[in-house]
Amino acid sequence: MSFSILLITPIFIGFLSYYLWIWSYWMRKGVKGPRGFPFTGMLNQLQNYRFPGVLRYQEWTKNYGTIYGITEGIQRTLVVSDPEFVNEVFVKQFDNFYGRKLHPMQGDPNKNKRIHLVAAQGHRWKRLRTLSSPTFSNKNLKKIMGTVQDTVVEVMRLLEKASAGGKDVNVLDYYQEFTLDIIGKISMGQTESLMFKNPMLPRVKAIFGEGPKVSIYVASIFPVFGTILRAFFQRFPTHQPAFNIMDTIEKAVLARINQREADEKAGIEASEEPQDFIDLFLDAQADVDFFDKEAKDEFAKTQITKVDKHLTFDEIIGQLFVFLLAGYDTTALSLSYSSYLLATNPEIQKKLQEEVDRECPDPEITFDQLSKLKYMEMVVKEALRFYPLASIVHNRKCMKATTVCGVEIEEGVNVQVDTWTMHNDPKIWGDDVAEFKPERWESGDESFFQKGGYLPFGMGPRICIGMRLALMEEKMLLAHILRKYTFETSASTDIPLKLVGRATTAPRSVILKLTPRH
């Protein structure tokens, strides 16, 4: 008995000392910030669905200033809202901050076979980025215009039915169905519209929803359990929405591979034009070879001995997975916020309708016509300033100790941007910062904002790869709606909106009236 106690006691003391060392890290550095409790730090507050973590950052910034430190389980995070600091980390010192803050459930970014662009780092990220970028070129976006147009027609039919007789409509529900339907058609091999009957929707909603996130909480405190849970969910994907979705994507990719092989055996010539993202990824090749034996730093070194210019089967699944989630949620939220802001600013909505009437007179809206909707671009940009919906991913991991704006940052420390504070900072935007003012973008000179003060899609080399697709979808649907309807608030509209969320910041609902135009 005494031997067991002698054995266990130093292990327990060492275990406790490690977590106390993590928890006290910023205190020892003399960096102010909220402390929370040993083991958890501020994790419990940042995982509160009903009070999004990004809004917590705003509260803490008011109390502790533009740079402060927190702990999240075993993660040490510096929260910043200084544009110069952000620009230094995201752009100027990218080679020192090429990683992202990762969760143990995501696996080792260098070993996880299904790692995606959001989590990948170093050589592998450069390779995946180069192979995936052509997917979102203007040439390929034009090819899926027909798919987007067909889905717009269907959602317009559903909105007409839902709003008949002046009934209120929760436009958020329709936008989520719209974006999932498009991403299903271009990423999942879906051949027909599944709006309001899509079996994928509950699983996707579960990832962003209010349900218990015990696995995330446990893995953030005890990474070893994250590894165990990941292995379990990979073996039994039906028990976790994200792994369940990956399993569905795997079946879709396998079906396409088998179809292509069967067509080849039957002598059926493959189409010169890819059907969707699955085909684009199966055909993906890069003209750049990143293999550099002479590399002296970890960013340039390769973690693999063989360089393959094609995406692997598992990498295709990883990319389709992240495009599904990002393409579904963020675009639907951006549409919702834009609609709400137009409803609460009728003079801006009227000006936008006049532009749409002028530039899009035909029933079908073309790619070139969308590019002429300059005021709509301003509206969307300003809406994303008001509501930077996915700002929790605006972070970087320090991969090599460095100094930024006089602050020493050790390897392994995360830098998290408090985007909401920056997007509402009068020192950046002026005294009218609280005003929804699309005209602030009128000059077309965005260099001031791009120096670190405006991050709707991130910034630097890791800026969102799907930005142009998201804007195309949003402009297309808004143009069709605004030609036929005017957004108006009703007694059921939350003013201001009630915000919730973890991975993204969403309105609980966006209930509006769609009043037919005369």
UniProtKB/TrEMBL annotation:
SUPFAM superfamilies: Cytochrome P450. Keywords: Heme, Iron, Membrane, Metal-binding, Monooxygenase, Oxidoreductase, Transmembrane, Transmembrane helix. Its cofactor is heme. Heme binds at C464. The chain crosses the membrane at residues 6-26. Gene3D superfamilies: Cytochrome P450. InterPro entries: Cyt_P450, Cyt_P450_CS, Cyt_P450_E_grp-I, Cyt_P450_sf, Cytochrome_P450_3A. One of its GO terms (molecular function) is heme binding. The keyword Nucleus does not apply. Belongs to the cytochrome P450 family. Cytochromes P450 are a group of heme-thiolate monooxygenases. They oxidize a variety of structurally unrelated compounds, including steroids, fatty acids, and xenobiotics. This is Cytochrome P450. It comes from Caenorhabditis tropicalis.
